[in-house]
Amino acid sequence: MCLLILLELSALILIVAGWNTGPRKEIYYEPEEVKAAIVTCGGLSPGLNDVIRQIVFTLETYGVKNIVGIPFGYRGFFEKGLKEMPLSRDLVENINLSGGSFLGVSRGGAKTSEIVDSIQARRIDMLFVIGGNGSHAGANAIHEECRKRKLKVSVVAVPKTIDNDILFMDKTFGFDTAVEEAQRAINSAYIEARSAYHGIGLVKLMGRSSGFIAMHASLSSGQIDVCLIPEVSFTLDGEHGVLQHLEHLLNTKGFCVICVAEGAGQDLLQKSNATDASGNVILSDFGVHMQQKIKKHFKDIGVPADLKYIDPTYMVRACRANASDAILCTVLGQNAVHEAFAGFSGITSGVCNTHYVYLPIPEVITAPKHVNPNSRMWHRCLTSTGQPDFH
After folding, report:
1. Catalytic site includes residue 163
2. Which of 2-11, 80-89, 195-204, 292-301 has the lowest mean pLDDT?
3. What UniProt keywords are attached to this protein's entry (predicted)?
4. Of these residues, 50, 125, 163, 325, which one is catalytic?
């Protein structure tokens, strides 16, 4: 039996090498005495049901018989009328065949102390938190509060963000599916633009602070002429602005297709101090702003332009996981259970430098991961689109 590991080890060692994943020869908990809970937080992402399914499967393989789901994120710990859901292999057998979350999701939650009060009252020994940066921060706060109360509770996270923006992670589940699903929107925009006189297709994809979906979708489609992401500044007006380049494309090609990440161009818009339930700043809608600017620009210069704007945000994130994401979800879900049975807490399971590892939550939530404007991948995207430097 090993002691419950509370991550006193050097974070530097963990980030460089990570802990090896997989089952241990010796386990900390007696499976038949364990009560395990699963909660899905934040927004939807393809693969949530796959992770839930694999956590349940693996827990039952260990011999755990008391498995519950906490409905609608952290809200399920305190909202009256929301009861925990008993989970079993038979119940979750086919939930991976559809998108969304079998347990439901929500943003925000009660005070950490109230959540831990609920964990104590429910006699939960393992808590599996599936979520993004905010949900990871919540999981870490729960872990610290459990430490403070000297509770032997393993709090283990599984990184979920469709934006692929969690630090140190090569890839998060749902991202591959989102890029693949985005192709449908881009292809529709391309067909509309190609078929119209001076046609312009404009597609807005997810990406609050990181443009990974927009970049990869642009690269994979091969149909994008301009890709705009939050990490790279640009101007719309003027001799070297985006609008001038669109004029050039209509004059030379006769049509064009633009892909923008939702967080792009925020410096060009009026800022809002409003925040959502997760504490994220509510962004101004750059897609709509871009749509209006393009229409006004071509009207002002007397050039006809037929603009079609497509925002597939909720279609992209609500679909079922593709094969690549389903495999990733399977491994992450299984590894999360192995972590908990080893006695680990306050850590997350992911892929770092092509290896499946466990990393301390405080290290992965220090900042979002961003596209490096000097990276080869971004330069490949620029080569594919042929876009100039918009300054």
Report:
1. yes
2. 2-11
3. Allosteric enzyme, ATP-binding, Glycolysis, Kinase, Magnesium, Metal-binding, Nucleotide-binding, Signal, Transferase
4. 163
DSSP annotation string for 273-286: --B-TTSPBPPP-H
Q: Residue 276 has which token pair?
A: 């959502």
Q: Are 90 and 119 in contact (CB under 8 A)?
A: no
Structure confidence by residue, pLDDT tens digits, 46-57 = 999 999 999 999
φ, ψ for residue 378, nearest 5 deg: -65, -40
Which one is the CATH code of 2-172+321-364: 3.40.50.450, 1.10.10.10, 3.40.50.10540, 3.10.270.10?
Answer: 3.40.50.450
* CATH H-level superfamily of 176-318: Phosphofructokinase domain (3.40.50.460)
CB-based contacts of 17: which residues, under 8 Å, 6+ apart?
357
Residue 156 pLDDT > 80: yes
Q: How confident is the model at residue 277 (pLDDT cuts 50, 70, 90)?
A: low
Mean confidence (pLDDT) of the chain: 92
Residue 164 CA to residue 357 CA, distance in Å, equals: 17
Q: What CA–CA distances, in Å, run from 175 to 179, 195, 208, 267? A: 6, 30, 14, 26
**Residue showing tokens 């692929």:** 164
Cα–Cα distances (Å) from 115 to 16, 120, 121, 143, in that order, read 33, 9, 10, 11
CA distance 238 to 365: 38
Strands 255-261 and 226-228: parallel
- Do 322 and 176 touch, CB atoms closer than 8 A? yes
Give the mean model confidence (pLDDT) for residues 323-346: 96
Could you read off the pLDDT of 77-123 as tens digits, one per residue?
999 899 999 999 999 999 999 999 999 999 877 799 999 999 999 99
Residue with tokens 């609500």: 318
User: Do 79 and 65 form a contact (C-beta atoms < 8 A)?
Assistant: no
